[in-house]
Amino acid sequence: MVTIKTDEEIALMRKANEIVRDVLSLVEEKIKPGMTTKQIDKIVHDYIVKCGAKPSFLGYEGYPGSACVSIDDEVVHGIPSSNRRIEEGQIVSVDVGSIYKGYNGDAARTFAIGQVSDVKRKLIDVTKQSFFEGIKILRDGVRLGDLGHAIQSYVEANGFSVVRALCGHGIGTDMHEDPEVLNFGTPGHGLKVKTNMTIAIEPMVNAGTYDVVMLDDGWTVVTADGKPSAHYENTVAITPDGVEILSL
Ligand code: MF3
Ligand code: CO
C-alpha cells in the first residue's frame, strides 16, 4: 500500500534523514586507505545512537551491520568486516539508514579513495547526477516511469548501465514500503506520485553490463563482469511543484 504522510510525519522523517546525511558527511571526512569496512560501520553505528536514533539496517532480515560498505565491483549490501581494508584507488559506497521516533531515513554516497581511474571518477559523478536528472522532472502527478526513464536515459547517454535487479522504494514507518521505484522505465507508465508521498530514489550504476550476481554470504551484490559500480541515494518527499530532498 502506498501511503501519504502527514506534515508531522514528514517532520520526523526530516530528522531521521538529517542524521543519515550528517553521518555520511562524517564518513566522507574520516574514510581513508588502511581503514577496515568494520571501522566505517562503527562510526555510523555510534553516531546514529548518539543522536538518539536507531541504525535501521542492524538486524534487518538478519543483516549484521549498521552500514552497507560496497567496494568497486560490489554494487550494494557489502557486509562490514574487520578483515577488509580500504585501499587507495578504490570507490566505496556507503549506505546508511536510521529510525528516529519510528520514522526512517535512508541515503547512500560513493566515495573515491585518493586518486581513482577516470572511469571510476566518471561513474561516481554520473550516478549522482542521474539522481538529480530524475528529481528535476519529479513533482505531484508525475509517473514513476517518467522518473525511471529520466535516470536511465542520462546514465546510458554516458555509456553506463542501470542495475535492473534492485530498486528504490517508498519509505516511512518501514524502511521499505510501496511503491517500488525503478531506475529505468517507460514515459507515461507507472504510479503517479502525490504530494507528501516519501520515496527513496537510489540509482545503482555499472560501468559495464547491468547484470549482477549475489555472493555466497547472501547479501553482497556484485557486477557480473567484475567492472565497478556506484550508488547514490536520497529520501525525498513529493511536493506540489517538485521534491524536498530530506537527506541533503
Ligand atoms: N538501504 C538499503 C536500501 O536502500 C537497504 C539496506 S539492506 C540492509 O534499500 F539489510 F542492510 F538493511
Ligand atoms: Co534505500
Kindly describe this structure.
It is built from four helices and 15 strands. β4 and β5 form a beta hairpin. The mean pLDDT is 98. 50% of the residues are buried. It starts with 6 loop residues before the first helix and ends with a strand. Helices cover 29% and strands 27% of the residues. The longest helix has 24 residues. The protein has a single domain, classed as Creatine Amidinohydrolase (Alpha-Beta Complex). Strands 8-7-9-14-15 form a five-stranded antiparallel β-sheet, covered by helices on one side. It is of the alpha+beta class and 248 residues long. The chain binds 2-amino-4-trifluoromethylsulfanyl-butyric acid and cobalt (II) ion (CO). 2-amino-4-trifluoromethylsulfanyl-butyric acid (MF3) binds next to β4.
Task: Provide the fold topology.
Blueprint: H1 7-30, H2 37-50, E1 54-55, E2 67-71, E3 74-76, E4 91-100, E5 103-112, H3 118-136, H4 144-157, E6 161-162, E7 168-170, E8 177-181, E9 198-201, E10 204-206, E11 212-214, E12 221-223, E13 229-231, E14 234-239, E15 242-245
Antiparallel strand pairs: 1-4, 2-4, 3-12, 4-5, 6-10, 7-8, 7-9, 9-14, 10-13, 11-12, 14-15
The structure holds 2-amino-4-trifluoromethylsulfanyl-butyric acid and cobalt (II) ion (CO).
**Helicity range:** 25-40%
Low-confidence stretches: none
Ligand names: 2-amino-4-trifluoromethylsulfanyl-butyric acid, cobalt (II) ion
Describe the largest sheet: 5 strands, antiparallel
Total E-strand runs:
15
SSE pattern: HHEEEEEHHEEEEEEEEEE
CATH class: Alpha Beta
Spatial arrangement of strands, main beta sheet = 8-7-9-14-15
At CATH level 2, the architecture is Alpha-Beta Complex
Strand percent estimate: 25-35%
Average of the residue pLDDT scores? 98
Rg result: 17 Å
Anisotropy-based shape? globular
The third-level CATH topology is Creatine Amidinohydrolase
Taken together, the total number of domains comes to: 1
**CATH H level, superfamily name:** Creatinase/methionine aminopeptidase superfamily
Could you tell me how far the N terminus lies from the C terminus, measured between alpha carbons in angstroms? 26 Å
Helix tally equals: 4
